[in-house]
Amino acid sequence: MRILKYAILGLLRKGELSGYDITNYFKEELGQFWSAKHSQIYPELKKLTDEGFIEFRTAIQGTRLEKKMYTLTESGEQELHAWLTKKDPIPETVKDEFMLKAYFISSLTQEEAVDLFTDQLLKRQLKLSDLQHSYNELIESLDQPISFSSPDFGHYLVLTKALEREKNYVTWLEDILAVMKNQQ
Amino acid sequence: MRILKYAILGLLRKGELSGYDITNYFKEELGQFWSAKHSQIYPELKKLTDEGFIEFRTAIQGTRLEKKMYTLTESGEQELHAWLTKKDPIPETVKDEFMLKAYFISSLTQEEAVDLFTDQLLKRQLKLSDLQHSYNELIESLDQPISFSSPDFGHYLVLTKALEREKNYVTWLEDILAVMKNQQ
DNA sequence: AAGTTCATGTAAGACGTTACATGATTTC
DNA sequence: GAAATCATGTAACGTCTTACATGAACTT
Questions:
Q1: CB neighbours of B136 closer than 8 A, spacing ≥ 6?
Q2: CA distance B22 to B53
Q3: Is there a single domain that holds both residue A172 and residue A108?
Q4: Which of A13, A169, B9, B113 is least buried, going by the fewest C-beta atoms within 10 A?
Q5: In this structure, what CATH number is given to the domain that contains residue B25?
Q6: Does the CB of B104 have a partner CB in chain A at under 8 Å?
Q7: Is any Cβ of chain B less than 8 angstroms from the Cβ of A109?
Q8: How many other β-carbons are positioned within 10 Å of the β-carbon of residue A89?
Q9: Is there a contact between B134 and B159 (Cβ–Cβ < 8 Å)?
Q10: Is there a single domain that holds both residue B102 and residue B136?
Q11: pLDDT tens figures, B136-179
């Protein structure tokens, strides 16, 4: 698969970035759907350079601090485009440790289960509220209604998807808690 | 983390299973939220046995075929319960290759993007329909309305959650496709 | 008898996280 | 001057997938 490879090529599509910049992108909205640590990113940048998909120039930050600014090669652009247009099967499993626990709920008392689900609900509500805030900021920054050609369309896609995902989690948790609290 | 460890302990909570049985559970509804290949399961069973969380007896299938039937030890039950009641932070990243592509949508033409999203929509609709079918079967098999004490409550939880997840994906894809098809 | 399923294992390699390691720059 | 951030790398370890390997039992 080497999905990190494509994540890096994709991030470089708009211009040059350092490994540090790439690391930071994974801490922002993109991190909702993909991420990697710098210890994985730096070796991957080396590999992509060796393979000819990216290249770098050395820039100086301040007076002495060296950083490598990477850009896509033409071969890298082609590789990115081939991946972007490829239609993959949807994954059978999307791992979720909380849902694994939920499957084993028969090993908990009703009180323990309500406690676990209530904790999850609170955490999901908090995350939802953060995402709602980011979404509002994005919408307010637009001077036109969002459309395919908006420069922020990718940003809009990941934010709305993450938002819907969390809304859906919260609603499901609320519904299940209502069922669980019913007298048996 | 060693989540597979807990997945195995959890599956063994209701009685003895072979490694092969465990492999099959990951192909059913639980596989929506956790799975592992047999090549990962057999070594983990060995490790859990060495650690004293599970034990096995050798059973004979047919006349000669040996299989190992595993059960939880008391220590294993405690370990499972401790994990089940532990409240973890929610993960920052839930990886989704399609959403990674979505973030890079500015590198596609409108036609390519509509094509990619339409393909995803079709696949998600198909999966939704399968899940809806499994859900209907489960509901019809119940002789009482679902509740915390139903033996199938865990099954109900994973099925409803997977169903809502796919419904949510489909709705979002339809909404985005409508935006993308708008005249610029 | 052939094909599928049942059943268990190991080996190699890819992917991912935590920790180790270093040093410059900026902000308070 | 101290702390946080910028910046890049490696090492060790854990997780996960694909492939290799074998043989019994059941179904057609």
A1: none
A2: 16
A3: yes
A4: A13
A5: 1.10.10.10
A6: yes
A7: no
A8: 6
A9: yes
A10: yes
A11: 999 999 999 999 999 999 999 999 999 999 999 999 999 999 99
On whether both B67 and B125 belong to a single domain, the answer is no
Straight-line distance from CA A162 to C1' D27, in Å?
Answer: 48
Judged by C1' against the alpha carbon of B18, the nearest nucleotide is: C7
Of B57, B84, B111, at which residue does a domain stop? B84
B139/A contact by beta carbon, under 8 A: no
Total domains in the fold of chain B? 2
Beta bridge partners of B66: B60
The answer to whether A112 contacts chain B (CB < 8 Å) is yes
Average pLDDT, rounded, for chain B: 97
Q: Write out pLDDT tens, residues A124-163.
A: 999 999 999 999 999 999 999 999 999 999 999 999 999 9
* Residues of chain B positioned with their CB less than 8 A from the CB of A102: 154, 157-158, 161
Same domain? B77 vs B140: no
Handedness of CA B41, B47, B49, B54 (dihedral sign): negative
**Residue A90 belongs to some domain of the structure:** no
Same domain as A37, residue A101: no
- Beta-bridge partner residues of B54: B72
Query: Which one, of B55, B77, B58, B75, lies nearest residue B67 by Cα?
Result: B58
Question: A154 and B102 in contact by Cβ < 8 A?
Answer: yes
The domain of A33 spans 3-84
Same domain, B63 and B118: no
Is the Cβ pair A108, B171 closer than 8 Å? no
DSSP for residue A148: T
In a domain, A40, yes or no: yes
pLDDT tens for residues A58-83?
999 999 999 999 999 999 999 999 99
For residue A63, the distance in angstroms to the closest alpha carbon of chain B comes to 34
Let me know whether A112 and A173 are in one domain: yes
Q: Judge whether A89 lies within some domain.
A: no
Q: Map residue B86 onto helix, strand or coil.
A: coil
Q: Which residue has the tokens 């609290």?
A: A181
B12, B28, B97: which to substitute to probe chain A, counting the most A Cβ within 10 Å?
A: B97
Indicate whether A118 belongs to any domain: yes
B20 and B69 both lie in a single domain:
yes
Query: How far, in Å, CA of A4 to CA of A13, rounded?
Result: 14
